[in-house]
């Protein structure tokens, strides 16, 4: 028996999820930089002062890559920027010790 497709989300829920996704992408735009070797930080502390953890994890890498693909799908970045960011991160990951 085929699975029943899920009911569409209510518009307020869709908007809330879209805003959350956009905020997540903005975090990565600010923190995944050449200075950080194109890797997402482990965490961001905001109090008592703003500090970025200069380390990462497989989970953080995976979430960043999914966010990158989503940013492209939502149209927040173009294909060229997505490819450049993806290549930079994968190049760094390729050089990392396993």
SSE layout:
Elements (H helix, E strand, L loop, with lengths): L10 H21 L12 E2 L5 E2 L5 H17 L4 H17 L3
Helix pairs in contact: 1-2, 2-3
Explained architecture:
- By secondary structure, the chain is mainly alpha-helical.
- Helices cover 56% and strands 4% of the residues.
- The chain has helices at residues 11-31, 58-74, 79-95; strands at residues 44-45, 51-52.
- Strands 1-2 form a two-stranded antiparallel sheet.
- Helix 1 (11-31) crosses helix 2 (58-74) and helix 2 packs antiparallel against helix 3.
- The longest helix has 21 residues, at 11-31.
- It is globular.
- The chain starts with 10 loop residues before the first helix and ends with a helix.
- 10% of the residues are buried.
Order of helices and strands: HEEHH
Task: Going across the biggest sheet, name each strand in turn.
Answer: 1-2
Helix/strand-derived category reads mainly alpha
Biggest β-sheet, characterized? 2 strands, antiparallel
Poorly predicted tracts of residues: none
Give the overall average pLDDT.
Answer: 93
Q: What is the helix tally?
A: 3
- What's the N-to-C terminus distance? 44 Å
Beta-sheet strand percentage?
A: under 5%
Proportion in helices: 55-70%
Q: What is the strand tally? A: 2
Radius of gyration: 16 Å
Choose one word for the global shape.
Answer: globular
